[in-house]
User: Which sequence fits this backbone?
């Protein structure tokens, strides 16, 4: 009897908890569940959106230009072309529990990040940095960061949650320094945050709070939006895109993203260990055709690095792209056993695979077998180089061509093609040490040209964001990084 | 008493076997908990593996997992790295239980009366109507049913929210959509069992003695027809609890169903183990409770065992 009562109580508590009243404010359909609220350890996009609300960096970004501006730091700057950075903190900066936040906290947070035993995925951003607190020229204390070579985008990286300071006196999952502070978190349901009165720019924060709802199904999220229950969707179902473009032109505007979808070719095994075979396959991929048929608004890619960064001039396509495949090679390819194309299960990936299968059959007479695997199995196979050709994508954390190009550096864990090229590595190293931005971009463009010429990868799309934002949300700006400064959003009355 | 103790001991042994199998199977699947689009630096991955004792020999990991499971501690989740498996179970299990209970109530409230009605009106319009409706409810997949319900009750009539949790109105559609296929099965089962009882000599004698039809159904037909229905309810209740994945996804409810699948897909060894053992315990207890109830309803079962 007592057990029955206990189970009954548990069920009632569960139902009541599921029926918790929601607070006024912005409601966000956040996609996947938030798995980790530690800013230094989290990596997923869903975690990132919540962490951007809870944790402030030394800098923040202008959502329109993505240029860094002062945040917890009242001033910052660099010398030696970005090899040496300094930051001065605002006076009276506080954690969300009211305790003072100091430069010593920032220093300790970054030292923690540098420690491999701490297990922070973005620790490599600071691995080679020398950190110190010094008296600045203006009299106050400054944090100095010295790198062995220039990091021109370091101020932008400081706006990312991975470099946000974390408290020593409380759990980083509970206390932050961002425009909002944590109220509650219910696994697979929602994270509720409210305005942080101790935020350095609290007076400018208009939203009373935000509810980040876990809604994994894109169709369910869209239903919630159409019923007026959420204000923001990170992604929409591909099937709904044409209707949304037609009926919600203000709320739904796909925008370019600093991300690329591409194919990896395993250069350690036949047939892609031969350069002419890789080139023949790359030549037969028509990204224009792919984007038009299955891209859903994504732009065709002719290189790995997307456009959109000031000063970046992509290299011209390799000369062999305009040449026809030699008849002798074509005859050889036609005799070849079927080539396997590996992709992880998703509707878009399947569509891309089917178009590629047709393009390679029509262009080269090759029979391609499509292999579809669940994500973790797929990733393990890709890491072990147990594939011939496979699908991949990369989203950059900051706007720098280097963040794409270093994927294919020799020995990089993200390479996963077995391709290694001394000339390419040398160009990247030279670019890292370049202090002149123009020269740096030229070296990086030369490296990309080399990569495209050697074809261990084949570009397919430059990605896009498919955010759906309610008309009552004011201050929202779509940008290349999908960066949202929640503190600058507000809700307005909408006249129907 | 001895028989009950034997059943409990069998349940414990089953739990141990399921724990060992789940431990091995989830690790046999390709890929690891820390595999992602972005490869971690080797030192970071090594630190993570050490944090979760994945650098230890398999037997030591099993020893650790078993020791924890025996005291109900499955350790921290590998995908929710700042959360204990126990916390996830405590938050999600009541939602799934509530949803399952709502589905079961729907199934009982619709299935039993409709089954009895169909039996009483054998071969007539009501009987055919119940059979046709139950065939439809059984053949429609959950997500189609849910989609149709959302289209009708949210976008056509504007009565209920399309998804989420925030009030009892949020639970109505999920409970009905979850319970309907079980209601259909129950109606068919009740009809068949009731028809069998109604054709029995005992009922014919009672009717000949002039017992009123309503009393006949309530006192003679229903108790006997309930025996096969009760036998169905145990596994059905477990099915309602474990089979709510689609409904939880469509209505964005924070239950255990989605965790169950995601834990396996994410290679979250600790969470997958915790949920598998919890579900097995639940299933075992449901079957055990059904057995007890059946003994009460039908003394022949007790004498047989």
Assistant:
């Amino acid at each position: 009897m007592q057990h029955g009562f206990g189970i009954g109580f548990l069920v009632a508590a569960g139902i009541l908890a599921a029926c918790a009243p929601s607070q006024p404010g912005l409601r966000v359909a956040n996609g996947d569940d938030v798995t980790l609220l530690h800013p230094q350890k989290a990596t997923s996009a869903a975690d990132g959106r919540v962490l951007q609300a809870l944790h402030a960096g030394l800098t923040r970004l202008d959502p329109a230009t993505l240029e860094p501006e002062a945040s917890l730091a009242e001033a910052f700057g660099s010398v030696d072309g970005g090899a040496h950075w300094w930051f001065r903190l605002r006076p009276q900066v506080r954690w969300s529990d009211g305790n003072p936040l100091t430069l010593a906290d920032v220093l300790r947070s970054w030292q923690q990040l540098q420690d491999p035993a701490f297990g922070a995925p973005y620790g490599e951003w600071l691995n080679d940095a020398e950190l110190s607190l010094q008296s600045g020229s203006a009299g106050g204390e400054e944090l100095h960061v010295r790198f062995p070579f220039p990091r021109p985008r370091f101020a932008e990286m400081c706006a990312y949650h991975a470099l946000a300071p974390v408290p020593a006196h409380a759990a980083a999952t509970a206390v932050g320094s961002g425009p909002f502070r944590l109220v509650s978190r219910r696994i697979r349901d929602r994270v509720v945050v409210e305005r942080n009165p101790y935020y350095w720019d609290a007076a400018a924060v208009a939203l009373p709070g935000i509810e980040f709802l876990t809604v994994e199904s894109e169709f369910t999220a869209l239903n919630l939006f159409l019923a007026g229950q959420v204000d923001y969707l990170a992604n929409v179902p591909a099937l709904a895109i044409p209707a949304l473009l037609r009926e919600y032109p203000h709320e739904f505007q796909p925008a370019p993203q600093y991300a690329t979808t591409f194919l990896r070719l395993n250069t350690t095994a036949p047939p892609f260990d031969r350069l002419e075979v890789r080139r023949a396959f790359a030549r037969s991929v028509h990204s224009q055709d792919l984007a038009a048929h299955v891209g859903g608004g994504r732009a065709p890619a002719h290189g790995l690095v997307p456009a959109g960064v000031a000063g970046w001039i992509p290299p011209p396509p390799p000369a062999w792209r305009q040449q026809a495949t030699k008849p002798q090679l074509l005859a050889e390819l036609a005799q070849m056993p079927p080539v396997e194309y590996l992709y992880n299960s998703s509707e878009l990936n399947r569509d891309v695979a089917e178009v590629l299968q047709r393009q390679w059959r029509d262009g080269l007479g090759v029979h391609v077998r499509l292999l579809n695997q669940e994500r973790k199995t797929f990733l393990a196979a890709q890491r072990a180089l147990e594939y011939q050709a496979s699908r991949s994508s990369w989203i950059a954390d900051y706007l720098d061509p280097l963040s794409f190009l270093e994927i294919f550096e020799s020995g990089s864990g993200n390479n996963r093609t077995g391709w290694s090229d001394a000339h390419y590595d040398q160009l990247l190293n030279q670019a890292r040490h370049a202090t002149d931005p123009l020269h740096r971009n030229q070296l990086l463009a030369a490296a990309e040209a080399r990569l495209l010429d050697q074809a261990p990868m084949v570009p397919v799309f430059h990605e896009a964001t498919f955010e759906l934002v309610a008309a009552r949300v004011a201050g929202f700006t779509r940008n290349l990084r999908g960066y949202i400064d929640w503190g600058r959003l507000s809700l307005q009355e909408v006249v129907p | 008493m001895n028989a009950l103790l034997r059943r409990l001991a069998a349940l414990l042994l089953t739990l141990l076997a399921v724990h060992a199998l789940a431990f091995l199977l989830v690790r046999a699947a390709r890929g690891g908990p820390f595999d992602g689009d972005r490869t971690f630096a080797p030192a970071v991955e090594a630190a993570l593996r050490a944090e979760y004792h994945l650098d230890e020999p398999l037997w030591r990991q099993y020893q650790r997992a078993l020791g924890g499971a025996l005291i109900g501690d499955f350790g921290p989740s590998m995908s929710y790295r700042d959360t204990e498996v126990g916390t996830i179970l405590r938050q999600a299990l009541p939602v799934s239980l509530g949803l399952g209970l709502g589905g079961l109530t729907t199934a009982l409230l619709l299935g039993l009366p409709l089954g009895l009605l169909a039996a009483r009106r054998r071969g007539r319009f009501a009987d055919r109507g119940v059979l046709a409706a139950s065939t439809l409810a059984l053949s429609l997949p959950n997500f189609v049913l849910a989609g149709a319900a959302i289209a009708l009750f949210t976008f056509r009539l504007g009565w209920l929210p399309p998804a989420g949790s925030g009030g009892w109105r949020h639970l109505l559609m999920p409970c009905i959509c979850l319970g309907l296929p079980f209601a259909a099965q129950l109606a068919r089962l009740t009809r068949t069992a009731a028809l069998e009882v109604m054709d029995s000599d005992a009922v014919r004698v009672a009717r000949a003695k002039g017992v009123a039809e309503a009393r006949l159904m309530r006192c003679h037909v229903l108790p006997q027809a309930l025996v096969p229905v009760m036998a169905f309810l145990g596994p059905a209740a477990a099915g309602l609890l474990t089979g709510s994945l689609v409904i939880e996804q469509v209505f964005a409810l924070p239950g255990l169903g989605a965790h169950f699948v995601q834990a396996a897909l994410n290679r979250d060894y600790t969470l997958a183990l915790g949920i598998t053992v919890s579900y097995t315990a639940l299933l075992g207890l449901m079957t055990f409770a059904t057995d007890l109830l059946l003994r009460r309803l039908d003394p022949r079962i007790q004498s047989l065992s």
Remarks:
- Residues 1-21 of chain A have pLDDT under 50 and may be disordered.
- Chain A touches chain B through 60 residues (CB under 8 Å).
